[in-house]
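dumping this here before i forget
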Amino acid sequence: MNQRIIKVDTPDITAAIFGSYDANARIVEDRLAVTLRNRSGEDGTDAIVVSGENIENVNMAARVVEYLRDMARYNDRLTDQSVRYVVDMIADGHGDELADIGSDCIFVTSKGKPVRAKTVGQTKYIDAIRKNTVVIGVGPAGTGKTFLAVAMAVKALRDKQVSRIILTRPAIEAGERLGFLPGDLLSKIDPYLRPLYDALGEMLGAENHQRLVEKGVIEVAPLAYMRGRTLDDAFIILDEAQNATPEQVKMFLTRLGFGSKVVITGDLTQTDLPYGQRSGLASAVKILEEIDDIAIHYLTEKDVVRHHLVQKIILAYDKYDREQFEKRQQRESDRREGQSKPSFRPRREQN
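structure:
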């Protein structure tokens, strides 16, 4: 039996690593075929003992425990999703990429919660926003595209890098027909912009958020309101860009003024545009990919920081879409092949 001993600072960190009812420990044990147990020393120090038959698995599990210990030191909550991510990265030989995750606190919310990248993809996304004037973040739901962009915008405002934040998104229904909404114009567009309000509220708190909105420092508006404006010294975020047309995205990008930064986010697999209408996000990715100071960053299902089932749901839908696409391609190929074959008709005998 092989074993490794990892020293832990406090019992609270040990409890965080093991998780509620040892749920986190079971994820590591099941994935790497090892056993984790807590050991308290005579000097009052804690340690976690990793044991198992396979020395390579024991070493990998020890690296997982060490990384989770560092995460707990940052006061990050160790969710089952984050534990699964760390285990998979180390087991797949990408453990070295984890080094920069979590070390950089982007922002501290009104409730004292630190906002940090939780995956390698998120770390690279944040780095792209820092280094480029325009960033297009493409990825599935739950990867933190909008939340991290809002965090970077609030940080830029706090650091006086910009003088205002402008958040916008297309006002389009998600495949539903809601009919006429009651109230004035602001009441009608408010449901479409609610996710942006929620992100700002979590960063700044309700009172600070409302105060900055009233002063015009933060503006949340539908995409149609951007036409005809030039936006200087601002951090501008276009959310749900997959639901904007190519003309709308072009209009939005040409609003860019001096001293401003633009982040465009969207998920190409969840387009609510009418059938046959091309997404402006898809067009922008192809048109702008070779322009300097414009970064296009892709997040994947591995960067999902919601419930671990969200990752499995995304993979299942991707698999289904690929299968349907291959079937359509095969039917189209069979149809063309059938049309290319010459047809022979028997000659009619003349009496």
